[in-house]
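ok here's the first one, seq then struct tokens
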Amino acid sequence: MYSRQRNHGPKILALLLPGIICVAILLALTAHPAEAAGSHVDAMVLKSDIGPASLHFLTQSIATAQRDKAQALVIEIDTPGGDIDSMKAMTQEELASSIPIISYVSPSGGRAASAGAFVALSAQIAAMAPTTRIGASSPVTGTGADIGSTLKAKVENDLIAAMTGIQQRYQRNVPLAVQMIKNASSYDDATAIKEKIVDLGAPDLSSLLSAVNGRTVQIKGGQTVSLQTAGASIQTLSPTPFDELYAFLLDPNIAFLLFIVAMIGIYLEISHPGVIVPGVVGSIALLLFLLAVGSLSPNWAGLALMVLAFVLLVLDLRLPTHGALTIGAVVALVVGTLIFFNSGGPYSGPKVNPLVVYAMGALIGLIGFTLVTFIMRAQRMPVTTGMESMIGSNATALTPLLPEGRVNYAGENWAAILDPPATSVDAGAQVQVTAIEGLRLHVRPLPNQSVIDTHSVTPLK
């Protein structure tokens, strides 16, 4: 005996497709650059805000320089700063590096400000190009505002201790470096070089490599290394497509929009099962959203409200709340998003634009109310198919109904019985179907039809 089996292949493929696509993207975009042969120096350019994306780029660059046995890794820095957590992780990567790291604040007019100053000074050798500057490292909120006195003191003391340790390790000026944090002091290249805040200055990268040639630096484990950088070729390490995508996704506005796409896609798939495409798009957007927020420092209570908003939308499709839950969903989405992205502490990263949140909340509400309206209208429409569609329709009596007989409905001969059974109608009378009992119709006479009350008929003697 053979049983018929349904082909679930397309649906299974649709469910697996988001994961397959993401894995393929990660494998394709994290390909390692070609390794340089001979004596060379790797160089990376850090010209973005200090954040998870720049941390990932620095970590990969250090790993590449270690793998291809570069003489040193040069970090060309021009940044306004960034969040404190990423900065701490970046300085830890530099301090623990097994290859020499040279920071170079460049080009002319560039800066290593705020968190960027820590990244610059954490390198074994710190250099500056002409007319550059370093400093202004006082802690502030993500919007640039001042923070409370008690919290500010705690953060400042922690940063001062970190800066003191870094400068003492490399025998540089500690008091002036500490002033970057206490008083937001900033120094031009001439002052920084003269006061030994940094090690040296150089007009360009080639001159810098010649100037540091033969210097001895201490790397991980206390090991000393003599730099052999004069005449070394320079291999520029550029961000991979994955790094670019990662940086793009880390924008809170982009991450929020990904959540909205995921929410709408999965919501449409639930409301219209089997469409597939919205569900696939929503699943991919959800995975990218999770990739992004995994590297941020959000308030997870906000995410709970955002998820609650989705649950309320789905429930509004199933329960007779007439859109009340959709209103709750919009409120939960807006409040949850602002808490999720915009309630970080000092040195927190960029915030989501409230106008984007309000606009997307209005869009979700519009979609929710539209679907709920369609569902309510569909529920109120009379049934036009199946046995239930017969109720309320007219039929013609083929025989007298006494109270049982036969009627013609849509060209078909049906057994019928009158409601109430104390009446009868003549053949040819019009009746209306009131109920269906198996293969028998319950009918009642229409107005102006000939109806006989069997109780009023005088029996013959």
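and now the second one, same deal
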Amino acid sequence: MMEGLRLDGRTAVVTGGAGAIGAAICRDLASLGARLVVADVDGAGAAGIADELNSQSLGLGARAGAPSGPRAPATALPVDLTDPGSIAEFCGGAGAPDILVHGAGVSVVEPFADSDPADWDLMWRVNLRGPMLLTRLLLPGMTGRGWGRLIFISSDGARAGSGGEGAYAATKAGLFGLAKTLARETARANVTSNVVCPGPTDTPMLRRVDADRPGLVDKLTRSVPLRRLGTPEDVAGLVAYLCTDRAAYITGQIMSVSGGITMH
């Protein structure tokens, strides 16, 4: 195995860890030796992912040929990103994480002219304010120790626009400015900050949207140059790499995992 791709001795917090992409990220980071704190508003779902990680001793399981190694323990902690008190309580129990992956997000799909400002507020609190509050509490530990990784999961819809996702795209685009500013402010402390933007990805969330808008998945698939939807593992692989020492010179970047549907 190439040097610099292990995460032994590192602790990683992944919000939205019970979701499809979040769980895939947890699996990849655990396979590289990180200790996982699986964070989600769905406490039972987070506990299920932590139990899965703890029950497996080798590899990624689902991905053939991936690097393998002994897994460190995983724990689950519930957190409600709409509630500053819940965020503070979570940080008190999360220990001293070296890696913080902001995977949680919420989307309400509707034409902007018909959208409800109450939905805007929900998306702002979960997609942008929550990551800001969480990072503010956990970042000093990283800078104090002289090593850290911040990963923000945004969306290609925030980069290129997406019909029906005006407020969602706006809140996810806010992560761009936050991540780039943090990249500048923390570089001398050896903390990197990057954004990963999934394109059309086959998740339960997308399937629910497709149920309301039949034919959406087929349309998206035809528009992707690689002629398939992304998988949670496609996104997780980039996130895991950005957390390693091999990616130590990458910071302040916005990267798409989109099968070529967007090119920058």
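notes on #2: The chain has one domain: 11-257. The longest helix spans residues 117-145.
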